[in-house]
Amino acid sequence: MKRTITRIVISILALVVLLVLAFKLSPYPAVWLVRYAFEKEAVRVDEALEKFVPENIRSIRNVQYDPSDPNSLLDIYYPKDAMAAKSKLPVIVWTHGGGLVSGTKDHISNYSKLLASQGFVAVSIDYTIAPEAKYPRPIRQLNEALAFISSHADQFAIDSTQFILAGDSGGSMITAATANLISSPSYASITKVNPGLRSDQLKGLLLYCGIYEVDNLNSEGAFASFLNTVTWAYFGEKDISNNEYAKTASVLNYLTDSFPPSFISAGNKDPLLAQSKRFAEKLSTLGVHLDTLFFPESYEPGLGHEYQFTFDEDGKQAFERSIQFINQVLSTKVGPDSPSMVPAY
After folding, report:
1. Cα(138)–Cα(224) distance, rounded to whole angstroms?
2. What is the average pLDDT score of the chain?
3. Euclidean distance between CA atoms 43 and 41, whole angstroms
C-alpha cells in the first residue's frame, strides 16, 4: 500500500515538473489556455449581437485572397440591394482581435453585418495567429487582403477609393502598423512589408483597445503573464529588448504626420487603456485628424477590454461615434484647413 501511494506521489510530482517545464520552454501551453478562454467568450459575444442585426444584409463567405495561403480567407457583408443596384460603397476592412494568438473572422460576423447595415461593404479577414505565424506575417496578410479587395472591387460593389481600416485588440495593432506603412514609405522599408493600398485610397481608421508599443507594456499584475505569453508567441522569443526588428512592431515610435485620420477608443477599465491614450496623444501632437472616445476613470459600470462589442448603451455609443467618424472623413477633405475633431473623454 505504501509503495502504491509512493508511486502515485512520484507520478504526480513528475507530471507537475513536466508541466512547469512545458510552460517554461514553449509558449504553446499558455497559448492553448488563452485560445480556449478567448474563443469561448468571442463566440458568446458574437451570438449576443445577432438580435441587433437587420434582415437586409447579405454575405459572401470564405473568399481566398491568397491562393497559396490556406489561412487567407475573408468574408464580405453588404446591404441586400447593393449588388443589384451596381452601386459602389465604401469598404470597412476589420481585422479581428484575440491577443494575436486566437480568434477568427467568424467572431465578428454579426458586428460586420451591423457595419454593413449603415451603408458600407464590411470585410472581415482571417490571418495566421501566433505562434504558428511570427511578426510581421499577419501584417503582410492584411496587406495581401487589401490588394485583393482593391483589385476585385468591382466584383464586390466596393468603391476602391474609399477604404476604412478597423481592428480591435491585436487586430488594432496589425491595422495601425498597416496604415503606417501605407502612409509612410520609410516604415514600409524598415518593416519589410509591401503596402496593399496606395495612401490616397485609405481614408481613415477605427482602432479599439489596441497595443501600439510592444516595448512599453505593463509588466505588473496578472495581465503581465498574458502579455508575456503573447510577446513570446508573436516574436518567437521571451525578451525582445535586443531585437531591433521586433521593436519595429511598436508603431507609435514610427508615426508621422501623414498617418490617416483615426478614431481611437478603449474602456476605462481596459488594461491596455494607456496604450490607446499614448497613441492618441502622439497623433494629436503630429496634427493628425483625430477623434477619441475615452471615459472618466470613475465611470460606472467599468468598461473593460473590447467593451465596444457589448451592445449596451456604451457599446452603441461607440458604434454610433464610429459611423459618424467614418461619414465625416469620407465627406471632408482632410488637411491643414479641415475642421479639427474634438476628443471625448
Report:
1. 23
2. 89
3. 5
Beta carbons of 184 and 177 less than 8 angstroms apart? no
Which of 279, 264, 267, 149 shows the shortest CA–CA distance to 204?
A: 264
- Omega within 30 of 0 (cis) for the link into 195: no
The three-state secondary structure class of 25 is helix
Of the pLDDT bands very low, low, confident and very high (cuts 50, 70, 90), residue 87 is confident
The pTM assigned to this predicted structure is: 0.90
Q: What is the pLDDT of residues 202-230, one digit of tens each?
A: 999 999 999 999 987 765 666 788 889 99
77 closest CA partner among 48, 115, 49, 46? 115
Side-chain half-sphere exposure of 164, counting CA atoms within 13 A: 31
Please name the residues in contact with 153: beta carbons below 8 A apart, sequence gap of 6 or more: 88, 91, 159, 160
The CB density around residue 112, as the number of other CB atoms within 10 Å, is 28
Q: How far apart are CA 159 and CA 167, in angstroms?
A: 20
Asked if residues 117 and 79 have their Cβ atoms less than 8 Å apart, the reply is: yes
Q: What type of residue is 65? A: Y
- The grid coordinates listed for 162 are 474609399
Residue pair 343/290 in contact by the 8 Å Cβ criterion: yes
- The count of C-alpha atoms lying within 13 angstroms of the C-alpha of 260, restricted to the half-sphere facing its C-beta, is 32
Alpha-carbon distances of 221 from 49, 109, 217, rounded to whole Å: 32, 33, 12
246: pLDDT confidence band, cut at 50, 70 and 90?
A: very high
pLDDT tens string 40-76: 999 999 999 999 999 999 999 999 999 999 999 999 9
Looking at residue 278, its amino acid is R
For residue 197, give the amino acid letter.
L
4 is written with which cell numbers? 502504491
> Could you give the residue ranges of the DSSP H alpha helices within the chain?
2-25, 28-49, 82-85, 109-116, 137-151, 170-183, 185-191, 222-235, 244-247, 273-286, 313-331
The domains found in the chain, sorted by start residue, are: 2-331 (3.40.50.1820)
